Amino acid sequence: MPGMEIAYWIFQTKSGNSVIWHNGATPGYRTYIGFDLKRQRSVVVLSNRYSPTLPDDIVRHLLDQSYPLP
Fold this sequence. Notes:
single chain, mainly beta, 4-stranded antiparallel beta sheet, 14% helix, flat
């Protein structure tokens, strides 16, 4: 829409590493995108199976291995 700007990103820091991320879901699908600007990495997970946190956990772990996988 002309003249409209929308941004909703979460900035999260753990062990000195910062990740910018956003996630979303619709019935039966889940997505998560994360950016590590310091290391210049980004990861996107698109899932066609609803899981409350699995895409989030995968991206966080790939960007920062101090986040465990369940």
